[in-house]
Amino acid sequence: MEAYLTVTSHFITGDWRLESFVLETKKMEDSHTADHIARELTEIICEWDIPSSKIVSVVHDNAANMVACTNQLVQQPRWGKMKGVRCAGHTLQLCINSALKQDPICRTVAAARRLVSHFKKSAKATTALQEQQKQQNVPLHKLVQDVVTRWNSVYLMLDRLIEQKGPVSAVLTDESVSKRSDRDLELSTSQWRTAEDIVAVLKPMITLTELLSQENNASLSATVPMLMNIKKRHLVVHEDDSRTTKIIKTTLSDEMDRRWELKGPGLEISVYISAAVLDPRFKKLSFLSDDQRDEAYSVVAELAESLTDRSCQEESDTVDPGPTAPKQDAVMAMLLASDEDEEEQDETSEMKVYLKDFTKCNGGPLEWWKKNEDRYPKLSRVAKRFHSIPSTSTPSERIFSKAGFIANKSRSALFPTNVNKLVFLAHNFRRIRQPQVQ
């Protein structure tokens, strides 16, 4: 019953590898208010001496205190031009939960939950299920119980039930195994059909969640394009869809529009769209209007120029090489330059050249920028900023799981300082170890 706050940092290395490290795990003595969390986060970045120019975003879940916290941090000069990013996985789960609350979907899920719970509590029924699986040549899989805090666990529960429909029904109708009251747990024909509709609609959501939760890939840039693709290609309501399918599709589509502002005025300037501009796979932004697209390109181009100016200023502040003569080639180019050269230079700005570049992006955006960084030095700075942002808080959630093995019943007397050190080492040590030279 001790509360801790763990902060992870994410960045892209010089060779375009996405890395993450635990900074600190702090015990939360006071209530989890936005003010308290904001103070703790500020203390952590001050302890690590992280400059405001290096802070791009804070990724968090949709809890009201975390949203209020990031709104406070945005107003503080110490945090620079940081933007709050809500965890895409958690947001997607909220969208799915809204769809699952609709009737008759919620009643089918509740019935499936009771059915799975029966097998989880009865050793006799579980043994009989295994025998039926062997007889019917069905995979020897256990039933899955949904968990409230686990993403898309309802889908996993229903999908496994559908797979095991034959053995489950056989066990429930076997009078030597099941009581009369147990037989009432069997799903009706309409409920089995509803379960199949739920699984069919939610299946791509599982894949989407897995893609967004990958820790070693740049996923923020793909968030909105993939959501748009799902809406356009999967969530379109057809006349021959069942009532359940129509309800789920409509609810999911409406929730996505509301939570990601996919139809709102903020879409063209969001961090998601800026990241998509710098992803060669989605830079055409075909899901935006012409005006929105031009605005997005302009925002990224202006940021590239400002980062370049800031970098030059920082270099001039730290290094004073003294007067140097320009290279002879540069002088000759200046003397021999024509008006046509100036016009060509104006027409071939980095953004314009980048948008016309159709070089294949087979290995993902980081691999592409690794090969093309020298061609687009200004845009590459912006690409590193946006592609370093994880689209979900999954990396921090995984730290919670790891911390559970450290701070357990057998180690209930650990001091908070030792919890911090152990979590720090458990996560970071394997990432900085160098191979031993034989």
Automatic annotation (TrEMBL):
Top-level lineage group: Eukaryota
InterPro entries named in the record: HATC_C_dom (IPR008906), RNaseH-like_sf (IPR012337), ZnF_BED_domain_contain (IPR052035)
Signal peptide stretch: none
GO molecular function, one term: protein dimerization activity
Pfam families recorded: Dimer_Tnp_hAT (PF05699)
Domain HAT C-terminal dimerisation: 364-428
PANTHER family tied to this protein: ZINC FINGER BED DOMAIN-CONTAINING PROTEIN 1-LIKE, ZINC FINGER BED DOMAIN-CONTAINING PROTEIN 4
Protein name: Zinc finger BED domain-containing 1-like protein
Source species of the chain: Labeo rohita (Indian major carp)
